[in-house]
Structures are given as C-alpha cells and as structure tokens.
Amino acid sequence: MKQNDADAIRASLTPETIVTISNRWVSIPADALTAETRFISESLAPASGFYVLTEDQAPRIPGLNPDLHMFNVYFEKEAATRAFGLKKIDDQWKLQGIYTISGGSPSESGTTLWP
Hints:
alpha+beta; five-stranded antiparallel beta sheet
C-alpha cells in the first residue's frame, strides 16, 4: 500500500471492499482504485513501520461477522493503533477494512477509517 501499487492493493482487498471503493468514487472519471491507492499511499507516508499487537480479537467481540478476523496494528511514528479486518478467501487473507479501536478492542460496527 505504501508503494502506491494499484495492482498489489487490488489483489489484497476483498471483493466487498473493491465494490465499496468503486461506489464511493463513482463521480470521478479516473479509475476508482487508482484514486484510492493514491489516498492510501499518502495516508501511510508518516508511518515508518507496522506491528501486529494482538492475536485475532474476533472471538471476543459479540455479534462480529464470523468470517472477519480483527487485529490491532500499531503505526510507528504516528503513535496510533488501528484495527485491521481481514477475511480469508480461498487460501489468502484479504483486507476488508480498517476500523477505530474503542475500549481497547476493534469494532466492526465502530467508525470505519477505510474504505
């Protein structure tokens, strides 16, 4: 994502996330994923490293989509932790979304930071 590689980002996303991106950028004539890729790359620029802080927290979050696995990821130099929602499709993990963390736990129903 930080390299602004649209093909690599497209390959790492769930089909639902790609649809969400496409719907959001529908009024822009350029390719939606290209615009989103630029946005992602620029937003990650301040971070110098990423660290997974927790094991999958999904089993501890009541009512969470059972196919979604949530991990707290620390963004170095931003001093921020965000929840990454990953979904296994066939034999690969794909990014569903990035969420805020409230009360120390990620929440799919909380604020979606991306997409």
